[in-house]
Fold these 4 entries.
Entry 1:
Amino acid sequence: MAKIQHNNFLDSVNDVFTDAKKAGVLHLYADGNQFSGRTISVENNSLFHFGTTGYLGLEQDPRLKEAAITAIDKYGTQFPLSKSYISNPLYKALEEKVYGMYNHPIVITKNSTLGHLGVIPSAVKDQDAIILDHQVHWSVQSAAKILKTRSVPIDMIRHNDLNMLEDKIKRHSNGRRKIWYMADGIYSMFGDFAPVKELKMLGDKYPQLHLYFDDVHGMSWIGKNGSGYVMSELDELSENMLLFGTLSKTFGASGSVLVCPNKKMHQEIKTFGGPLTFSAQLEPASVAAATASAEIHLSTEIYTLQYELEQRIAYFNDLIHETTLPLVDKNNSPVFYIGTGMPKTGYNFVNRLMKEGYYTNLGLFPAVPVKNTGVRITISLHNQKEEIKGLVDAMAYHLPKALEETHTDLNRVHSAFKMERKPKPKKQLTSTNLNFGMETTITKIDKALWNSHIGQNGIHNWDGLLFLEQTFRGNQLKEHNWDFYYILILDENEKPVLATFMTVCLWKDDMFANVVASKTIEKERLSDPYHLTSKVLSLGSLFTEGEHLFIDEAHPLKNDALIMLMKNLEILESEAGAQMIVLRDFTEAHSLHNYFQGQGFVRIQMPKACEIHLANNESIERYTSKLSARNKRHLRKEILAYEPRLNISVLQELDYDQVSQVYKLYTNVQQHNLGLNTFVYPEKLFLHMSEHPNWEFIILSPKDTPQEIIGVMFCYKNKLTYVPSLVGMDYDKLNLYHTYRQLLYQTIKRAIDLSFQRINIGLTASFEKRKLGATVADNYAYVQTSDNFTLELIGLMESK
């Protein structure tokens, strides 16, 4: 299979968000002429509000409101001047009071996103390195990536994995002055904590380690003076730490605060911190409201508020404990996450809760992996005990209904989140009026049945799959050993409703990445060949292209068959130890797009699919006469002009010396083009090709050195379709003979000579193929993974 093109991240997010918007759970507008915090009105329905991040309810405190109103009356709606020149008259009091909360030097910023953009490039020097927790907030990651332009290495660890962090520290310790680890204090989706005390101990062990915490979700509801979770764990910050808190969210106003114990660094950041210098300062109303909130934080009242919230959190935890609701992380923060697994289950669940009168947040990609969709509930002082109990009762009642309506269950949710669960079920062999059958070899499948439904256009006809089984089994290297699964779902009359085949094998994780990332990763693979590799359960195989899935669109049990397939794929993924499911080779307008997306798959764009359709009794002269004038000129000058200088032969089998030559040419192409970054196929594959009647080889040799093979196309013959599957070339002679273009042209000639009706000409080099008359179409894959770590790590490598 050709490499899947780099995923357009924004397109993937847009797909998911559009789906959620259509389901009525995202990009909503609150309505009504007032807002209390306890309830929120959506489409004229008053809902109890369990989605706020104002955990202490201070945004509705009369003292903050009065301070903001007075400030507007005195100073206007804004103070339109850079703070580097002069701050509005209210700033001094705010800075003094916030300093009193932390007893460390502070910098007030417009918001945390601009704060990170100002602080990180200032604090991190060119001689330093950055390590990110892969769940640290997007605003931190985005600011850190700016430093790649200064060649600061940016690495990533799995969430809260201190062993992995220590390994990364050791790796960077020799070449870097400081090593910055960046994490959240409280993580905004699951409400789980950073291991702050353990991180401090790691900092004591490795003096190069500096800690950068974004604690905006830990602010106010915990800690001395409401200074947040990190401060509650440490009491005092050491000079190797930077801490971000917020003046919005629980604090009740706007803005954020950097706490910087290192006075020299504090002065540098405050003097010139990029956006901190050039961005507008906080509006007078925000400064006044924040000052009023800081006064509350410096009083004993903050502990009363914290205690009252603590009681509500404990009450919610007690109620949840009495249910079977899949709470993803058990903690005492105000943030809770109930897993639903598939997005469509999340949509259904949120809508049900809204109809019951409760507003909650949907946790959605990219904040979480698509398969880790769920409902985020936040507890605040606005919530009263009776409505907290009402919410838990509603969730306990409606989640089973949502699971049932979306054809899933708690076992699948537990599996998606790697939670403790009941013993996994056996494969679902039957369903109402359907029979699920799965075999591990094509020899157990009726040949005529398979070829009539799946095997008409590519290498994956019955004979081709037997060839692949014999080639990719019993090999020395693990990447050359594939597991095959053939799935047939039949109705009660033994008629196929769905048929497909899957493989499980080792993929390079950067198969989805661009060349920049692959070059970096390949350097690591010189010492560790299996660096960043994963087992993947894939529709089709790495060697096949085209339509791998048959569905009887008119069958009344089509949807039942799809549900059966999805459930069994999850079981198969677990049993095979795969880390990802990939369903591939679909058109943009394929009817299953919405279904796959609702099942937790993200659509990504593959290389364009290229085909050539040949008329009956076609000749190469008639075929080329239909090319455009420009393409005819290309054919004459770039291909036909070089044809007389070449020996062109079609061989049905090769001797051992020829196999060695063509194998070397294939590895040239595979290793030269990281856009095809799969493992190199074994030489055994090419020996088997030479022995198989369906394979043949189009060979190019210079006329003056006829024994020298400079180009080869490896072609498979499948009934009415000709399949040029792989190519091999001598790059030293590539431009001298225009080898690749010549091979494409000779492939078309050969298919016409054999009276094929179609050429499946592959996924890459669409520009060259289009010039020779190929039809080019967009091509997509659907990817499902329960862990975004690898994709995010490779994303760091891709960015420049």
Note: The chain has four domains: 40-55+302-390, 62-297, 430-607, 615-756.
Entry 2:
Amino acid sequence: MTEVVVTGSRINSRGFTQPTPTTTVTAEDLEKASQPNIFQAITQMPALQGSTGKTVAANGTSSGAQGLSAFSLRGLGAIRTLTLLDGQRVTPANITGVTDVSQFPQLLIKRVDVVTGGASASYGSDAVGGVINFVTDTTFEGFKARLEGGESKYHDNDTVVAQFAGGKSFFDGRLRVIGSVEYNREAGVLAGDFGLNQAGGRDWFNSPAIQVRPIGSTTDGLPQYRVIQGAQQLQYAKYGLITNGPLQGIAFGVNGAPRQFQYGSNGVATGTGAVTNCFSPFCVGGDLSGIIGASPTLAARLKRKVAYGRVSLKATDNDEIYFTVNAADAYSLNQPNTGEEKTGLTIQCENPFVPAAIKASCATAGITSFAFGTSNGGFGPIAVNIKREQARFVLGATGNHQLFGTDWKYDAYYAFGTNRIKLDVDNISVTSRYNAAIDAIAGPNGVAICRDPVARANGCVPLNVIGQVALDPAALAYVLPANGPFQRSKQIESVASFNVTGEPFSTWAGPVAIAAGAEWREEDYRTITDPYGDGLTATAHYNADYPADPLVRTTGNNWYAGNYHSGHGYYHVVEGYLEANVPVLKSDTLGEANINGAVRQTKYSTSGDVTAWKLGGSWKTPIEGLRFRAVTSRDIRAPNLSELFAPPVVTNATVLYKGVATNVLLQTIGNANLRPEKARNTEIGVVLAEPKWLPGFSLSVDYFDIKVNGAISTLAAQDLVDLCVAGNQEICSAMLLTSTTPNTNFVRVQAFNVASLRNKGFDIEAVYRKNLEDWGLPGQVQLRALATHTSSFVTKSGVLGTVPVESAGVNVGNTPDWKATFTQTWTKDKLSLSIFERWISDGVYSNEFVECTSGCPVSTVAHHTIDNNQMKGATYVDVGGSYEVTANTTAYFKIDNLFDKDPVASPTTNVSPGVNPFLYDVIGRMYRAGVRLKF
């Protein structure tokens, strides 16, 4: 049987030392990590930056990435990291083309190879940042199981793991059957409350934010940006706030009782919408009861159910055919926020829910209505439920044969898989119904009714949002219908691949090895969504669950959030490659050296032909254990189905327009004219492997330089708005920011091949093993360190008027200056104890900020001034251990974040949870214990 191994090369040949750095995580390493999902163990590696997971995107509604376990190398994004299972592509779990590692069989994984360099020439598109390959144990014999439970210090995120695997051979090993079933549940850390009340009693949230002054005000020498805690929104309160006019500053409490709102900052309402001593949208301190930053989910609830089977048959002594099936369900739940913050509302003074005192004040002031904002304190949390169901089948053959006197190994397979993604959002409002329901008048007998007769005829029930009052269930059912936004997607992937390797001849320095192959792949997706979000005008699309309603816009985008749209996209690709390894040196005095090169020609149905290549070499010096390696490559990433054919997606966002916080619809659309990205990846390294003068020690240091041209990217909404304000009329044409009609302002974003990326730095890996008995001490010790230093990560948007952005060391992002992990393990007979440290270096909020407290230069769009641009790093300590109770039973424990270190505040200019889960632990101390069985 031929084992598929990813080493940054397709060649698996004796004496071949490949030039591309590869870090291997063994099954033993994974056991020490003791994570419920193998993804959480691998993503701690320093080179993995920007990976998703259950704590990332947990405060979002519309991205579809919630609960998705997808790797990102070098901070280049999951779309530029190729994740494989036994060297094979796996059916995507998202329209972006990324896989969900939660759907992999995990108990049968015997190692994970992480290739931290471009490998497109060998493995195809997406391997710009590198390759992560999960290698299963295809010869497993016997039975094993893992049972585990755990919870956090805060008595949440309780975890249950149950995994079972078995393998058996028959007919003298010619037939082999292997299978596994797995279930695990991580309860997550779901919604907190309004104000500073975090889930589980956590107390580290203090409403951090960046308070922004208008650029035009920065001629006074003071900074434009100020980092604050206790950020208080001045545009809404928990149960309602009058935000403009002569009554500005009146809030509502129990039973609708009016009261003076406490803005903080000694702020006083001006009657024009502004507040003295405050800068939109924040004051500091005051009545923080209605802020929503503490309410989003910190960690999504995640459930995995996976069944895997493999049957292999040796058809001849040299040929094996196999069939694998993988059926997996991954379910996640997140609650993006409690309530729904609404601003820019208008309440008529005659509204029967308006307190009599306010009606009298309206009459005195000579007004008939007032501006109003609320975070809808009685609504409860929104819930986003996502279920990903994978069914994947592989029929393959491996073997070896002689041809022209040379042994040739082959590997061929056909894979077909589907991923069905079901997304449902609960407890969320239809905007037009909400607006109709809060516009009430007195009807017959003084009973409140909806003002709009069309709305009344279609079931409108008035909703009282003025004060802390019991909400009418009928009104809630009208505004928050039981059937919320939904999306049903189907991803289909078909792959046919054939690869062959051999050593057709030799030079004086050794055998020349080649690998060649061809692959055909087809990707297809189709999405259907609910009519309220999609906006299909065909009346037949409406049904009992989503009845036709004149208040519901036929153009869609009717929900507060989660306005999904239907779409379809397809492409296929045909490619072939050739790789060769040529020994060029074999000498006792000069050492050994080889040159490795590969070329791949690819033809995409959507974007034409593109060529990837690599050229590298390795020199084993005559100095024992010392080796040098270098490789340069041209790597590619083709636009995925989302970038090409994504249906319009509309989400809520807040931007600062001329110093005023403005709610907008963020419209994201696809671009069928995109071309493949092209990257140049260069790595140079040195390896010292167990020299005689220090046995048991290994060290590698590798410099990397990745350049991506024609990068597919979109600018952030705020960047687009800033460019518009600066005078870019082309960008202004893609937005509307001055409408006074609620829910009509928008910013449209679309991907283009205009950006470029350049990421530079170096990796360090060191291992030392020592038998302590040599020093008269008991046991053995292993020390391991992995570190990545990102010295520069520059992004150029490609848009006229923008400046390059340096994100290395920006700790609100995902590429800190340094990210490192350290492990110390001591073993003695049946006992093993380990200490783990995870370290993130100190950083900044932005390298483009100018830090100053006085005498500041005038701020610009590219370089804002700020009073404090320092963001602390973090060190987390974990401990774990195991004890072999019997020959078949091992008990173990693990404590993550032993000292319960709180995450560092990550302020933004908008309302947010104020934390960066890409770098920082947001759960707190976690306890886990379990048992492993093996027979």
Note: DSSP finds eleven helices and 47 strands in the chain.
Entry 3:
Amino acid sequence: MLEEIFRFVNVRPVQKASENDLLRNFASYSATQKSPFHAKIEQLKGPDARSQASQLASERLDQNEQTSHLTIIQRAARGASHENSVSKAIQEAEYVLGQDLSLFLQSERAQFLKDMAWDRLYAHTLVPEKHPEDREFVYDGVRAIHLLELLATQDYHDKPLSAGELALVRAIIPSTVIPKISTLDKSLENHYSKQILHELNKTFEQFDALNRAIDEITKIEEAHKKQSRLINITNDKLNSGRTKSQDIEGFQVTRDNHQLTMHAPWTFDFTDQTYVSSSTQELLLRLNISRGVYFEDIKEIMEREKYQVASNYINSFPIVELNYVWNAEKFQKLLENVPVVNNAFLQVTESPDPGSASARGIQPLGVGDLLVVKQELDHYCTGEIAHIENVLQSEYKKRIHSRVSEHEETIITESEDLEENEKDLQSTERFELQKESSNTLENLTKIDAGVSVTASYGAVKMTAHADYATSQTSTESNQSASSFAREITDKSVQRVMHRAREVRTRRTLERIEETNEHGFQPNNSSNVVGIYRWVDKYYKAKLINYGRRLMLEFIIPEPAAFYLYVDSNKTIPGVKNSKPVPPNIGGRPLAPYHIDKYNYMDLISQYNVQDAEPYPTEFIYISASAAESTDKDANINIVKMYENKLTLPDDYRCIDVFGYKVVNGYNGTYLDCLVAGVNLSSGSGTFSEVQGTVPFTVIANCLGFNLSLVARCRISAKKHEEWQLKAYAAIMKAYKDALDDYNAQIDASQIQAGIQIQGRNPDLNRKIEREELRKGALRLLTNDFAQTRVGGVWRLNEEFSSLSTGTFAFPEIQINEALVEGKIIQFFEQAFEWDNITYRFYPYFWGDKKRWMDIFPLTDTDPLFTDFLRAGAARVVIPVQLAYTETVLHYMATNEIWNGGNPPTIDDPLYISIIEEIKRDHGVDVSDIPVCSKDSETPCLVKEWNIKLPTTLVYLQKDSELPDCKSNQAVE
């Protein structure tokens, strides 16, 4: 059975077609003149020239012209093509035309028919999907005109073009008829690409609105800072009878049960509309931000919203769209402002630059014979010595390899609650005797003399009288009483003590012990000598010629890159985890300064970080107060001085202080508060990251005052950096643990798998090589399918995504998309002889230098596959199917897939020569290949020989004799 070893081509430069062949086999409008439609197309300029030309061509084909008039010249050409000489052919043509051939060719009628035929052929070339049923009729008209013009220049005794030769005549289309593809051609942006840009613009508008709102809020904050930081609250305002919220000097104060609550002067109020635009007000309402919220909190909410907007947009589309917007200015501004976590950045490349293959410098390699080497396995033979193992007589040799991996983590959790109740019950009884004595002596003498008057509404009556009386009273009493009292005192003391000590215990002991033991049984009778030999393969090779082909050549960088990537990330039986991706921000390796309060939660969730420190509180508020009582008896103000301080936590810095004051006094009352050199009453001055303690001094001329201060403090840069370092260490540790766990599972799965067959079937290796090389060649040829015209429609950045999720979450085919993609796939799969590509791998040092250390050690039991894995580049020569030669050349010049029939030939001397040289060959059965000769058909056998291929297999020789250098022993 013949198996293929490799292919190669005997390529030579394309031979220039002779003038005679050009005249007979290729038709052109004129070497010096242009048709009316051609002249009109050449006047088109600018990025939309290609689309405008297509529009003009479509309109030209829609014109109601009498194309049936071409029938008469087609009849004349067919009649002439059946004659044996030019003179007879001319006579036949003149008979059909009804006039002299020379006069006809010079007539306005002939010029009209020629312009109509060629202009419509140009139009069909620009829009081949338009009225394709008329294209061959017009093409035949062009061929007929070409034959008649050729007859007028030939010698009478020459042989005219036969009917078969006339059918093979190719029309040459001037390259200026098809305007070049422009990278700025906006008409080529289909709905898909427009949607991407629309989403980018929409996202950037939200992003820009948030930035503007933050700027406006910052301006309001600065304006508030210029006002007095120390707000004066007078008694008359407090006692004005308003019991609910009231505004004092522009700041909201709430009195509830005589308790004052005052909003900070850096809180937002919707009354500050002089600084706030309508769009910002709408944004504040959408984010549920009301009055009384600190400016810093507002900006914090908006910054977090910015991160979410950018992150949601970037993570919403696949890599191909990321490539499309990567260089957009708005997209780069998003990345500059927001450190987004996205692994897709690791694979971002430059967006493809549209243009035809020819415009990008891809040209046919030439024309040559496709030579394929097929092989037939003959035998295996032992090669050179690989290793010699020696054991002396009575010696025992043993090798033990042991690997132990232990991991232990201990965390203790302890919680203690102690509750102590103490009760003291006391009871006291008392008996008391009380005695009371009292003596009373009373003498009473009464004398009553005088006048008695009785009056009524009538006359007054008056009478006189005189009375005398005396009495004496004496009283003595003795009282005794006893009382009994019992006093009970219940004393209860309850002490609750809670002692909490939390040390979580998580003890994980992982012990992996792998022992490999290799020994030799002792043999006391003689020494032990084991000779290991390399095994070589021997093949019988046959070189087969498959005939002449158009060849394309590509140099593909690192052809095994994708295979190695998939192989390193593939799912391995017994391995549940996937290989973790290194942490990155915007495609760059994660650094401590990348971590902030917005993205660290994404990183923690991505790598399942345990016991991560939360983001520290960025702002805290420290308060202090001062008061002097009012001296009610004083009749003048008294100068008072008071000193105190605000004590700040070690990791925070004071950035602002505000407060309010209540002062009582007579005329000339004042109170100034100086904090770290800043007079709060004036509102001027700044606090520059004051740390430790913030002293303040009160100087007042009053009867009494009450002062309350609040310091706003921000976390120090040092503390923030410490948090970043800790977060970075925790993330990287989690990543390393995940990677170690992944590698450990791989090792364990390999141990459990036991003995495995190394390598892969060589036929499968060849298939992998060809598929990867095919993918690379197609990407270079098509510019990664950046622009492809098929069926009259331009497709940009083709993804081949016709399979989508349907209504019921099942994979379903998008019919229209699949039909278009099917045309592209069919063309590229059928136009090239992918099974007959020839390739050669170049060494690793032609690849990325950063990957040398990884690529150089790669190996496989298949030596050819080892070359593939270690290749820094590969040279690939691809033969084109004979029937697709012109279609491929047309695609290379126009980026257009011709949709049937023979395409016109682009006016390129190379293309014309290629088409002229290549002839269709008829092959024979490869199972019975004849020896090549001048008259043999293809494929045919060129040569046979034996080849030797080294392998990585090792064979233990039966005896201890050294091999004879002059002989070769076959492996049984």
Note: The first strand starts at residue 3 and ends at 12.
Entry 4:
Amino acid sequence: MTGQLSPSVFAQAKTASGFRDAILFYLRAHLARTPKGASLRDWWMATALAVRDRIVERLLRTQDAYKRRRVRSLYYLSMEYFPGKLLKSYLASEGLLETAAEALETLGLDLDRLSEEERDMGLGNGGLGRLAWCLMESLATLGYPAIGYGIYYEFGAFRQRFENGHQIEEPDEWRERGDPWTILRPSRSHKVPLYGRLEQGQQTRNSRWVHTKEIIGIGHDLPVPGHRNPTVNFVRLWSSHPPEELDLEAFNQGGYFEAVREKTFCETISKILYPNDKTESGKELRLVQQYFFVSCSLQDILRRFRRLHEEWEVLPDVATIQLNDTHPALAVAELMRLLVDREGVSWEKAWQITTRTFAYTNHTLLPEALEKWSVPLFEKVLPRHLEIIYEINHHFLQEVEKRWPGVVERKRNLSLIEEGSPKMVRMAHLAVLGSFAVNGVSALHSRLLCDRLFRDFHLMFPERFHNKTNGISPRSWLLLANPPLAKVITAAIGDRWVHDLEELRQLEGLLEDPGFQEAFWKAKEQNKKELAKLIGRLCGVRVDEHATVDVQIKRIHEYKRQHLNLLHIVALYRKLLENPDYLPHPVLILFAGKAAPGYEIAKCIIKAIHAVAHKIERDPRVREKLRVVFLPDYGVSLAQKIIPAAEISEQISTAGREASGTGNMKLALNGAVTLGTWDGANIEIAEEVGQENLFLFGLRAERIAELIQEGYSPWDVYGKNPPLREALDWLTLSPDFLPGEPADRLVPLRETLLEKGDPFFVMADFDAYAQTREEAFRVYVDRKSWITKSLLHVARIGKFSSDRTVQEYVQHIWRLRPVSLSALRT
């Protein structure tokens, strides 16, 4: 049956034969291909369209129910969403994974192989985007009304490859094979003004923004289905376009390039995720990009509001707008502009509405990640918004003066404008001031927000501050990522854990069950074999599939301290040369992660890791005991292959610098034992799993603060610690690791650790790290002891489900009610 199937008929089909017919229908009717002439990419696209058909039916019914019931909704503003590959995820949400696999098998196709044709969606780059997608998936699974907003990037951040150990960035053309998931919504378009100038009114707040350049934002909806329930929410992503595709008059007069110049500028805005902001033009593009995104989103939110409501005062009663980090903080000024300038709402009423509608999640304590924009740039791009921010600041500082009369330092700390040359607009301050709730993402992080980063704001508005520890989706990060382990768990305790991760506590009762222990161990061994094949395919390196798998997979950054890991590898190398039996069991140390294109020290760390890996690989004296591999182009789908095989989870960031981390949760959920510092959510994982089941080390945040006050000297540590000194000197001063290359290639790494003061306390934590890690290697050979630690990581990780995170947001900030749609099941 080909080319004859109605999509509406397929919406009712759940059998393998029905799914097979649907695939053939889309292959012929939508792709104009016959089975004989179809490529693997064609089969993937047809299968994707077949499952999307069912999801769209649920989407339409869900949104109709929300509208009819006039529900309170969450609007989630995030510059990133990072779902990875969606085919299996969508099939699982529909309960069709086995059905689809069977249908494809009758066509001579394999679902796993077909899934490889899909590219990770280039809508995010790291933890921020992975968290955003987990929260959106949990919201839908729990039945809460929510819409995400973001940008429909043409290119992701970049694709990473290595050339002689150097990171090479290439365009991430993630849509080159097509995008079957998003739904174009040309009727959902909005005009966004930029540049121009102000015409002053009688009061500053009444200025008119004139002679602006306009950009059009067009929506693309990405469905977010709940797992095995009728709810389907969506993320609306904006692509940028010119008001007119072609300046015909200029073209007819021979100005061919001028005719498309405006089009090129407008389309650049949604071209790439995080353009490099090392240049002034890069900074300007980022600011334009962020404003484009928040303006389209807010206009859309207000449009939706006016369909059902007339009085602006009720907006906070029916909506919460969540700012995911500082990137969308411009939304505070933009909502004021829309309410005051476009809707004629008084300033006082508009500010009251604004501060009752927004909530803000902070994701970092690092000063460089708390966005600031120069006043001259702001005035050039968004003159009206700068004026609005100054007006907000004026009234706010009057309140500060009433609270702390004559205390200039308080005003300086709290002001939205940082004095200097040039003056800077503090976006985190704007987000805090414009929101009714501010939260960190782990207990330690939230405490440090109140005690340090936003101390004066907390003194002034203590009721605004909350903690919402991050979480991960058990569907994405165990059920789909690790089928061998998921099957072992389900066979032992049933499948309720998929929707209630606390059900994994039942596994504690199986700690002494030899049969379960063996099944648990075999699942890990199976995953390690698959990882060994992947390493061979991607890196051309043959590794021992029985070695201890020690992984550090995350963005390359000094505070995450990949160079601490590396220095210990070099020290281990030296010990193995002296004593080949020093390690009790072979160890595979695995890195994966990207460095920002302009972050030179991070790129130097990547080069150094490759140099050490290359030398060890070619040294027969040690390579059977120690291997180092750096996998390229880290993303969601690669993480879902590495994490199931991992046995040691490196979470070694400087205490007080990692807001939370979610990689630590994903690895723990899959049975990797945590080796980490007292930082971020590591602390809470230790509370749940038991400190005795983790390998924790290093300075705590309070001690680091004291060392900074006392005057920390890495040179003192260097002078008193021979193993550290010898490892650092060998790596950075000898030609052994980079023969034939410039002798100073790795000197920047040495400089940041010594001359520049070791800002992330790598030297100070080296001894504790080395001792703790080597203890972990020794414990690993005691199989029963290791299985106990590993199994307890899985059994006690239930708190870190994104379902729990969402429920806490709902209870304390979002005030949503689940919408029962059971009658909508198809």
Note: The chain has a mean pLDDT of 94.
